[in-house]
Amino acid sequence: MKPAFFLGAALLQVSSTFAQWSAPSAAINWNGLGHIRVYAVDNSGQVREWQFDGSGWNGPSYIGATAMPGSGVTAVNDGAHLRVYYQDQNGRARERVYENGWTDGATLP
Asked: What is 4-107's CATH topology?
């Protein structure tokens, strides 16, 4: 397990980057913080992901979703898939699902 100060410093480094982003962010983790994902919407509406897998941060990576600029994003790890929810450019709530790659999930009513 990584010392708390290591993870704290890494999270501080990532959170200082969010000053450039226009929307609230979301984070999920598993294996006792061994894997962390942080999601945010950039100023052009692209949903981005940062990844921590025990040895350092990577990203931001585009997950193939374009949100309404200024809208929020939320995420959940259901144990089998990573699921990211966002508001699309038409105002609909949308889902992206990760299982060996990002795919479209549900469009919520």
From this structure: Lipocalin (2.40.128)
- Can you tell me which residue has the tokens 């982003």? 21
Whether this model's pTM surpasses 0.70: yes
Question: Where do the structural domains in the chain lie, given as residue ranges?
Answer: 4-107
Query: What separation in angstroms does the CA of 2 have from each of 9, 66, 99?
Result: 11, 34, 27
Q: pLDDT digit string (tens) for 25-74?
A: 899 999 999 999 999 999 889 999 999 999 999 999 999 999 998 888 99
DSSP state of 33: T
Q: How far is CA 81 from CA 4, 26, 45, 68, 100, in A?
A: 27, 16, 23, 24, 9
